[in-house]
Amino acid sequence: MNEFLKKRIDRKLDTLPDERVYQILDYIEFLESKYAARVNAEPGPFQKLAETVEDTMRAGKLSASAIRGTMDAMSAASRVMGGLAAAGKSVVDQVAGGSDKRIDTTPSSSETKLPEKGDAPPPAQAGSA
To answer: How many domains does the chain have?
Structure first.
């Protein structure tokens, strides 16, 4: 499907109430079962869970506003989980990529502690007068 057609369908769907959009989804799934030329890509585990919850709520005849609120919350949870997964992957990549590098533990000049009043002077180094 071309991008212009997708945008046109999106514009039309945006004007309809949720109850009608669910009817359209049912019709699309019917058409897909009859005429699909190719198999759809399998949704990810969280998407599959969200679709199951949505379908269960629809089968229970809950209001579209209740379904919308639940799906908004699941969408937010999905974004959080995606962010956590990305952060975890980043940490794993850094640990795996940095395992062969040595960490410099010598203090830099900005980390060197300056003597405070009452501290003993540093010991004289060999060769200095």
So the answer is: 2
